[in-house]
Amino acid sequence: MTLIDMPKIELHLHLEGAAPPDFIRSLAREKKVDIGGIFDENGAYKYKDFWDFLKVYEAATTVLKTPQDFYRLTRAVLAECAANQVIYAETFLAPDFCGGGDVSAWKDYLAAIEQAAQEMQSEAGVILKAIPTCVRHFGPDQAKKTALCASETAGRFVTGFGMGGDETFGTQGDFAYAYDMAREAQLQLTSHAGEWGGAESVRDAIHDLGVTRIGHGVRAIEDDALIEEIIEKDVVLEVCPGSNIALGVYDDLKDHPIARLRKRGVKVTVSTDDPPFFHTTMRKEFGDLAQTFGWDGADFKALNQTALEAAFCDDETRKAVA
Ligand code: ADE
Ligand code: ZN
User: Fold this and answer.
1) What letters, b where the CB count within 10 A reaches 16 and e where it falls short, cover 91-116?
2) Which residues 6+ apart lie within 8 Å of 67 measured at CB?
3) CATH number of the domain within which 70 lies
4) What pTM did the predictor assign?
5) What tens-digit pLDDT sequence spans the chain (322 residues)?
6) Cβ–ligand 1 contact at 274 (below 6 Å)
7) Could you tell me the distance, in angstroms and rounded to a whole number, from the CA of residue 2 to the centre of ligand 1?
8) Looking at the domain assignment, is residue 321 inside a domain?
9) Which of 167, 168, 171, 179 is nearest to 131 (CA)?
10) Would you say the CB of residue 280 lies under 6 angstroms from ligand 1?
11) Residue 108's pLDDT is what?
12) CA dist., res. 211 & res. 253, Å (int)
């Protein structure tokens, strides 16, 4: 078995962001929704920079209207996971796009998503857990609604709480109330930080939100004391190298800090973030890292082990995946 064929664990995958352009186009046609010029001449998602990406992302989600749409999306995304030998995945999904943060509507969407996940677990052997996620630029009040949705459905499928969106909007600490709600509901916590914000943003997520994982976190490399703290507190980074290159956080994979972070002793994992937006897959991520940094089977095994230990699941699931 070559190393790109090995079983993989993916901790950072946005459900809406994993929607293939064809899937969005056909729903738009079916529902007669005008999503504007979000595709290029090859039919791929088209955006100029991160902020434009967020606009295109949100335009694409407008065609995802019903629980049945999310059921179909979840099945399609998990089929792609299986094609990449992903055996366990955690998906971020925003209740804002599933009924606007209304708890009762959210439960209907979630039931459809969980149904698809159960089917795909038996059909394709992929285990999925869900991380309801607030959207930072929708603001702290909307995040409280998201946290309520997450808390009301916490259990064996909904195991975490997260935050994505525009990291330059407000501070991590502005969302402390939402994170406190999620923590009280026994949800495990992660937040996007150190992607568009610097090391300070990562430090704030750890101090002000109490997260045990960081989405991206790569710019922690800019602060030695923070690196020490991350190691000491056993915080794990959900690194998405292909996303960082596609969005221009780094120009080239050889300049990406993932290998340096790992050498320093930081626990890193590898994910795709929003694969069709970034023209990536888990197989491609593994292949590119092997080629650029010379990582071999043992390196990827260690990476998978870190991901398994950091997964937001119970020990029974962990044993089933190991
Ligand atoms: N939502 C989806 N992808 C994201 C990213 N890379 N950063 C922040 N929010 C996101
Ligand atoms: Zn992300």
Assistant:
1) bbbbbbbbbebeeeebbebbebbbeb
2) 98, 108, 109, 111, 112, 113
3) 3.20.20.140
4) 0.98
5) 789 999 999 999 999 999 999 999 999 999 999 998 999 999 999 999 999 999 999 999 999 999 999 999 999 999 999 999 999 999 999 999 999 999 999 999 999 999 999 999 999 999 999 999 999 999 999 999 999 999 999 999 999 999 999 999 999 999 999 999 999 999 999 999 999 999 999 999 999 999 999 999 999 999 999 999 999 999 999 999 999 999 999 999 999 999 999 999 999 999 999 999 999 999 999 999 999 999 999 999 999 999 999 999 999 999 999 9
6) yes
7) 30
8) no
9) 179
10) no
11) 98
12) 27
**Which positions ≥6 away from 50 have C-beta within 8 Å?**
166, 196, 247, 248
Ligand number nearest CA of 19 is 1
Q: Is 17 in the pocket of ligand 1 (CB under 6 A)?
A: yes
Atom of ligand 1 nearest to the CA of 196: 7
Does the annotation mark 195 as catalytic?
yes
Domain hosting 186: range is 6-312
Q: Is residue 317 part of a domain?
A: no
Question: How many domains are contained in the chain?
Answer: 1
Round the CA-based radius of gyration of the chain to a whole number and report it.
18
Question: Has residue 26 been placed in a domain?
Answer: yes
Q: Which of 10, 195, 238, 285 is catalytic?
A: 195
Q: Identify whether 31 is part of a domain.
A: yes
Tell me the two tokens of residue 262.
Answer: 């790992």
Mutate to test the pocket of ligand 1, among 274, 277, 278, 280 (most ligand atoms within 8 A of CB): 274
Whether ipTM > 0.95 holds is yes
Which residues, 6+ apart, have CB-to-CB distance to 139 below 8 Å? 169, 170
Expressed in angstroms and rounded, the spacing between residue 9 Cα and the centre of ligand 1 is 19
Q: Which residue has the tokens 């959900």?
A: 238
- Residue 254, classed as helix, strand or coil, is helix
